[in-house]
């Protein structure tokens, strides 16, 4: 039983370490995001939608019309595209949150947001009053 628990926690540690390069990339973009004006930061969303070729009307229609298998395939394709802009998108959310609510995402919250993006379960035992911070990262990518 003890060996099972050791493997379980060791596995989690390895996964967390594998996410660190993404967190480092997000952190590396922080000064760049701080230097943007409010309008430039706001326009990042428009820029991301262009990069991803997002048509909100068509996306809503697809969600209603596609069967489960087709929808899962489409979502998997879109997720791979999202991964390309994810660090910059998370950096934008972090900066917007800091400007609007004076709440800066800590690295552990960025990591939790990434874990949620990967459809894994993330529960932080500390800072429970700031659950919305990590969820805001994923909501922005929807």
Which characteristics define this entry?
mainly alpha, Rossmann fold, 7 helices, globular
List the helices and strands and how they pair.
Layout (H helix, E strand, L loop, with lengths): L1 H27 L1 H5 L3 H15 L3 H10 L2 H34 L5 H11 L13 H10 L2
Helix pairs in contact: 1-5, 1-6, 3-5, 5-7, 6-7
- Quote the distance from N terminus to C terminus: 40 Å
Q: What is the gyration radius calculated from CA atoms?
A: 17 Å
| Helix proportion | over 70%
Number of domains: 1
Looking at this structure, what is the CATH superfamily? P-loop containing nucleotide triphosphate hydrolases
Helix/strand order, N-terminal first: HHHHHHH
Strand fraction equals under 5%
Query: What is the mean predicted local confidence, pLDDT?
Result: 81
CATH class: Alpha Beta
Q: What is the molecular shape? A: globular
CATH architecture: 3-Layer(aba) Sandwich
Q: At the third CATH level, what is the topology name?
A: Rossmann fold
Uncertain spans, ≥5 residues at pLDDT below 50?
Answer: none
- Structural class from helices and strands? mainly alpha
Helix count? 7
Number of strands: 0
Largest sheet geometry: none
Describe the protein's architecture and organization.
- Helix content is 79%, strand content 0%.
- It is mainly alpha-helical and 142 residues long.
- It has a single domain, classed as P-loop containing nucleotide triphosphate hydrolases (Rossmann fold), CATH 3.40.50.300.
- The radius of gyration is 17 Å and the shape is globular.
- The protein starts with a helix and ends with a helix.
- 18% of the residues are buried.
- The model has no long low-confidence stretch (mean pLDDT 81).
